[in-house]
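Amino Acid Chain and Its Fold in Token Form
===========================================
Structure side: the spatial fold of the chain, written down as a series of whole-number tokens.
Position: the record begins directly beneath this header, with no further notes in between.
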Amino acid sequence: MSTPRAGRPRSSSLETLAEAACELFLEQGFDATSIADIAQRAGVSRSSFFNYASSKSGLLWAGFDARLDELPDALAGSDGTSDPAAALLTVFADLAPDALALTVANAAAMGIEADLERESAIRLVRIAAAVALALRAAGRDPMAADVAGSAYAGAVMTALRHWSLAGPGKRPLRVYLERALSLDWGDA
């Protein structure tokens, strides 16, 4: 029988840190908030912060990034073929409202617009690369795979933004993802 680990469970500490970060960003702004401030508000040591995230931004993106890490396996599929829309829905559709959604909805008040744009671009590129790699592995033309990967990634990030701005608790992210992934661009 193993002995339980002392301290808060990892997920509750991560949530506590993210909640503390959001509160502080709203109170004093993203740039004026230090990692030490967040750790103090959350009731953990500064060094403990780095057990959960590598940066202030990383803390906000932790839930999304955990899902993103699952994407290559979801894209591989059991038969070696790839359906990017189905894989993206499998990975992201049930993402719960969290600190990231709160941050997107309150970016101006938190003074985090530039950081949010930079961090969103990093995730967009990661999604695009994973989708393109899977499509190339399934035999698609490399340029077509890259373009499709970028389009799918744009759909995910756009759905995330619209879901957050609409109030993420009102409707599940799945609704926005399904719409973004099925849009007929002729309507644009």
User: Anything to note?
Assistant: The longest helix spans residues 113-137. Residues 31 and 111 are 7 Å apart (CA to CA).
